[in-house]
Specification:
41% of the residues lie in helices and 12% in strands. It is an alpha+beta fold and 254 residues long. It has three domains: 1-25 and 116-158, no CATH class; 38-105, no CATH class; 164-252, no CATH class. The strands form four sheets. A three-stranded antiparallel β-sheet has the order 1-9-8, with no helix packed on it. A hairpin with a 6-residue loop joins strand 4 (69-73) and strand 5. Helix 1 crosses helix 2 and helix 7 (177-191) packs antiparallel against helix 11. InterPro entries: Puta_zinc/iron-chelating_dom (IPR005358).
Length: 254
């Protein structure tokens, strides 16, 4: 594995480096490719991305998901994943792109913050683009992966969503299509549609049925991040199929 440090080295998809290896990159509006990476591309959203972006836009999570995203099933697990819905025009550009750059730059998704770096394995990194597509790879500014993540504000993501990756292994499918669809809907609601999940928790008998401690109720009632983390924990260790259906029917109807 090569660590890129020499200016003469051509960077691109073939390039690999470790976390402490150095790479060169800088994005700015004077580059001829500015905003090109935001066209016709799969931008996956994490639960934290959905929360931050919806709040930035002044939308509920339900409104944001309906207006700006599309939902697919992950290969292998079948669990839903969320992507930004590109504009329905010839350019297929991200709906948040303007002539000056990203309209939600402060709350842009994790994958956009990482770009052009992509994770390829344990302490293995590379580039998502070649330099003919991303001219920022020809710039002189050097980074390590840690430097880049800190600069882009990515440091808090891993800690906040530490329980998210445990959920598919913690939720047991029944093999019955109607029940498994319900489980997937619970997963999607608790992870991505936080405002709907808040209704699910507080508008019915969820707290009583699932015996949620008063101190937990106080913590999650008016705190988005605490409610998000609670949802992760509930799916992994507190989920009960029959109880969840009872609350669903009570709050949302059959």
């Amino acid at each position: 594995m090569k660590n890129i440090g020499q200016k003469t080295a051509v960077q691109g998809r073939h390039t690999e480096f470790t976390g402490d290896g150095r790479f060169r990159f800088l994005c700015h509006s004077k580059l001829e490719c500015f905003n090109r990476c935001c066209r016709d591309i799969n931008i996956f959203l994490s639960p934290y991305d959905v929360l931050r972006m919806s709040r930035k836009l002044g939308l509920s999570t339900s409104e944001f998901l309906e207006r700006y995203t599309t939902r697919l099933q992950a290969r292998g697990t079948g669990f839903p994943v969320v992507l930004i819905k590109m504009r329905d025009d010839a350019d297929l550009i991200c709906p948040f792109v303007t002539g000056q750059g990203c309209a939600i730059y402060d709350e842009r998704p994790w994958s956009c913050r990482m770009a052009p770096v992509e994770i390829r394995g344990n302490n293995r990194y590379g580039f998502a683009f070649d330099s003919d597509h991303c001219r920022g790879l020809l710039e002189d500014t050097e980074w390590t992966v840690g430097d880049w993540m800190k600069n882009q504000g990515n440091e808090g993501y891993q800690e906040l969503e530490s329980g998210f990756e445990e959920i598919p292994a913690g939720l047991q499918m029944t093999g019955l299509p109607s029940l498994d669809r319900h489980i997937m809907e619970m997963f999607f609601m608790a992870c991505y549609d936080l405002d709907k999940f808040r209704r699910y928790v507080f508008d019915g008998s969820f707290i009583k049925i699932f015996d949620i401690p008063p101190e937990t109720v106080t913590k999650i009632k008016n705190n988005d991040l605490e409610l998000l983390k609670f949802g992760f924990r509930w799916l992994v260790s507190g989920f009960d199929l029959r109880k969840s259906i009872t609350v669903r029917d009570e709050v949302f109807g059959n």
